[in-house]
Write a structure and sequence with these properties.
Length: about 850
Amino acid sequence: MSRFTAFDSSGRKLRRPHSLALIPAVLMALATTVIAGMGLSTYVAYGQENTPQHEVKIVVEGTHDWNISQETVDAAAGGPILAHRPLTLTVTDRFLTGDELLRGMVPDHDILLSTQLENLETDDHKIQQRFEGTAVRADLLEGRDRKAYDETDIRFEIDNAFRDNLGLGHGPKSVVAAAQRAAVVLYDPPNTNPVFWISLIALAATATTVFLLMALRYNLRWEAKHRRLVAAQRKLARVVLDLEALEATFYAAPETERPQGFRKSWLQLQKLSLDLARSESSLTELVYSRKTAFRAQTAQQLAEFEVSARKLTSLSDALMGAGSVHARLVGTGTTFDRLSAPINDAMTTLLIRLEQAPGRMVANGDIEQLRSALGQLLDAAAGDPKNLQAVEKWQRAEQHLVELLTKQKKKISRYPHGKVAAPAGAPQEYRELKTSLGLDASTGRDGYANAAYLDALAKSITGETLESDRKTTAKQRTESAYRPSGPRLAVMLTALLLVGMIPAGITAANVVEDPLPDREGTGRGAQLEIDDPSGELSDTEIIRYMDTDFPVPTSMVIAVRDAEAYLDLRTDPPGSEYRSAEPLSLLTSLYRIKQEFPELLDPMTKELKDGKAIIPVFSTDEGTTIAPGLISPEISTGQYTLGGTSNWEHGSIHESTYPDITIANVVDDYAEGIQLNGFEEDTSISFGGLFWLLTMLFFFTVVNIVLVIRFLLTATSSLGRFGRGTASLRSAKKKLARLLLGLDESQINAVAVLGSSGSNGRADDAGQRLFERALAMALREERELDATPLNERLRREFSARVEHLDHLADVLAERDADVARRAQRLIEATRGAGGDTPGGVKLPGLHPMKA
């Protein structure tokens, strides 16, 4: 039968509840698998379909400038232009209508490119054909899965490719560039961005793990609650099984010798055990119900059940011990030992602290009086178990000790001290045992309470002078910072989110950033030929101002011409210090200069042959230089211009009085354009989307790693050395091992030396017996903690038990050292008796000292 199976009061089997978080965990696991499959299939499909299989057909209609005709375009293309779908680019010399341009209503064409460079200016709005630009059939833009370019972007991309290449001095090649751009922007590829797919998979996997860990946390919380219930049930079952023996012990004591507290404890035990037995079944049903397992009411009832079970166990033990005293049964000495042990521990710590007090804060005689009173108490605890006056004798010894403690408290309270920390309360069993024996358990007349308070008062004056003090303070600090509060947790998560934005922003910027190369170099690879009638330009000076190197040798002709003869310059508005050029005059000047170098042109297309570019430079009558761009032998493709006159449509020009620097800048732009030519940015995800995706991925990944580590440490027993409190447990084991090895020496010190005569021997013998029993208990606790599995070690209760064990080991070590010091002083005092010369003495457990 499963250890998590129980039965209710009617015999119906109860099964443990499971977290509903398992459902989304399974769903997210499936989603992770589906996303991974989609990403893999996308890559496979993209690999199979990435090669374009169709041709872009170019049809030229009408008469055009710039040597554009069907023959020249076909010659400039040099072969088929491939696309992922059949396309036809129609070049027309007419204007376009608004429906064609804006709504894609071109049923007889795929793409309609007008070579008109300016809109038709007219006051007659009835004229439909008055727009320049490019129209794309509407159905080519619909049903796109990944809109890398929206409808407006697509027609502008195609038209800009045509116009940008016109600004490079091209004619037929401008149409070819428009066709090549159309093949790119009308392709609707699957999203193959690895960052996108990996991020989706990672997020889904993280969500799966988070939900799974939520379910595991639910299970761990329920198991902890179930474990508490089972432990309390075991205590109740033990007491119920012992009721018969307890009853026999109770009635074995003569009725006239049963104190009122003894009878009251017996009645309370009967009632409490009956109440617990009645509430056990209903509490079990609450714990095993999903609806009620984690309710505050269930937690409160379970806590009350645990407290009552502990009280019942303590009451049972106290009654058994008290009954043995009142009935004069064997075992009374053990009962008094259990009663004296807490007082002995508190007094031992107090005496050690007072002996270490500075100056004459506490007189040696007062310390000896307290030690003697403790000895009398322990001596009374070791009395004859059949002596009917044993309880009264022990009580008289306790009251004598209380009187001395009260007197000492008045003395040392005169010293300046801080706030007196509340001392640890006495064990519940101690109070129950005193009540059962009919002893006064009030705070003012209790030996433990007075000793613990005086120790706290002395500590507030002298500070933390004992090792056990520092361990207790460290434990309190650890417990207070053990688990972050709600606001602290929120601040930590917010800080983690903000930190995650840094690598996310850097990564996103690197992924989507324009790949603009840095300008570095000295003009290496540039071969300049200067065609300057004035002979004023020098290629050496131009190269000196260049910032870019060419990876391969590049030849350029610098053609210097008269600006007024080639350009239509104008000042607009009148009186402005800046001038512009009429846009078409810029294009006309490029075409005109290109014709001046027939040896560089293809006879058919009138385009520059490969291998040499032309940089037109215009000198004005004002002594300034205008370098609007260059005439390139290559077609500009991709998202970046090749460095030509890309702003020719606005007629923008820049006049400079430093021709060398101006031309060097044009050459640098051309070098940069060569590197960027053909670049296509992956627009499958925007910067903002990628930024937030990576930010959340970083956030959940870190949180997920923490949760996974937490789970692994909980579930893996082989990682015990990483559990909570392991270092403290090792420290306590070493201390207990030293005490165990020195046990014989401790016995010699405490009994043979200090207990050599009189009642002090019996008292010290009783103290030694308590010490040995406490050491044995600590050793059993150490073995149990050392055998605790890792999933138990990660709980707060384990850390508390380890800290308590470490504290107990320190207290025992301090007691042992105190006895050794007292033995040393005794030997030192007796070795010089009768005039003998004191000699070196070495006692067990101490370094040699001179008597």
